[in-house]
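Ticket #4471: structure output looks truncated?

Reporter: J.K.
Steps to reproduce: submitted the chain below (119 residues) through the standard prediction queue, then opened the result file.
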Amino acid sequence: MGDMGDTFGAMRQDSQRRRIKNLDSSTKLLIEKGIKFESKNNGIHLIVEDFDFYPSTGLFKNRKTGKKGRGVFSLIKQIQKCKSCNGRGYGYGYSEYGIATIRVACPQCDGEGITRTKK
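Returned output as attached by the reporter:
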């Protein structure tokens, strides 16, 4: 094989090693965080709540909305996002006279945007 063939062969091997490492570390991180998932295709495809997650590449897709993202940390942030306020940390309410809408801190996440686990 020529020099170019050797170079691309080495790049392919490096890419395969990186994907295997990503698969292992992403899956371990989900387990450490206590996030439940269903493993498909020998761990290549994970179903995490409403998301399809491919840990080797970091790609995830919301099954309901079709939105895509990348990275296990972004996935964890999406999962922990408060369902009540959609991660904004606030909602809208009415003034005492019912005339104007005002921003109020979300009662479920205390305005943080991330659902807190009860201890």
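Triage note (M.O.): checked the attachment and the full token line is present. The beta strands are 38-40, 45-48, 51-54, 59-62, 68-70, 90-94, 101-105.
Status: closed, working as intended.
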